[in-house]
Specification:
single chain, 0% strand, mainly alpha
Length: 115
């Protein structure tokens, strides 16, 4: 643990016993144990949130790849349609001036002749 062997640990505990005193040493150990437990809990929560972020990054990457595939397919479709001579019909634009006006005019109606 931290590169400290048994002899060093005994010396540290002896110095702590002398400096802190035998009455306060158990309280200090208890609070140190609680602090260590809270630290471990916080690190585990951080690891879990990082794992969730990695999962979200994988999902984002999948959707990005899917978008590129769809865009490529649409571009290929558009170039095939143009090369074949077929064109998509134009969508009439809405106007604020009233109902749409037909672009073709009907032939004038005249007297019907039966030949």
């Amino acid at each position: 643990m931290f590169g400290i062997g048994m002899p060093e640990m005994i010396v540290i505990l002896a110095v702590a016993l002398i400096v802190i005193g035998p009455k306060k040493l158990p309280d200090l150990a208890k609070s140190l144990g609680r602090a260590l437990g809270e630290f471990r809990k916080a690190t585990n929560e951080l690891k879990a949130s990082i794992a969730i972020d990695d999962d979200l990054d994988d999902v984002k990457k999948t959707f990005t790849d899917l978008k590129y595939d769809v865009d490529a397919a649409l571009d290929q479709d558009a170039s095939t349609d143009t090369a074949a001579g077929t064109q998509m019909p134009a969508i009439p634009e809405a106007s604020d001036s009233g109902p749409p006006v037909p672009t073709e005019t009907a032939p004038p109606k005249g007297p019907a002749s039966d030949d």
